Amino acid sequence: MSNPAANFNIGLDGVLRSFGKMRHRWNMRWIWIDKFVEFHSGRRAVAIKNVTLAEEHLHDHFPGFPVMPETLCIEAMAQTAGILVGEAKKFQEKVILAKIKKAVFFDYVRPGDTLKLDATIETVAPEAASTSGKITCENKLIAEIDLMFSHIDKNLAGKEFPEENFVFTGMFKSLMRGAIFTDDKQNSEQDR
Asked: Which of 24, 57, 61, 151 is catalytic?
């Protein structure tokens, strides 16, 4: 008997071709943060996520006791930290989540909770970046999440990606409206 999964081994090139065809048909964006409230360029960002029962995923997870899935908390942190990393490079490169280094959860998230996502850049290199983050709700620690991102335009595999920046669309950049911005480089020069 043959392995049915073998028929689906199309490789990275096949996935990229498929994605290139699909992204024009559907809006494949889900935003899991509501807005940034602090943004320290190249260093730290703080975002807010208001969890409401209007979110469809809460109706099935779990019936009678809705809880925001931990995977979506990780995605919210990835979006917060990913935008921070992208902005550090002036959105010139496509930044994608490469690895979840750590994801430890201490409590669950329920409808009515307001999450504070605090992301800090640990390191930035031409091909990658590392971040650490905490999710809190009313000063109670919900999760600690450390992530690694890849700058796919500088990837070491030599793969070609679309020229269009399909990662940082206007939708993601609009989350930054109203945030308190500081440019640490300008602040340190003014202090001299």
From this structure: 61
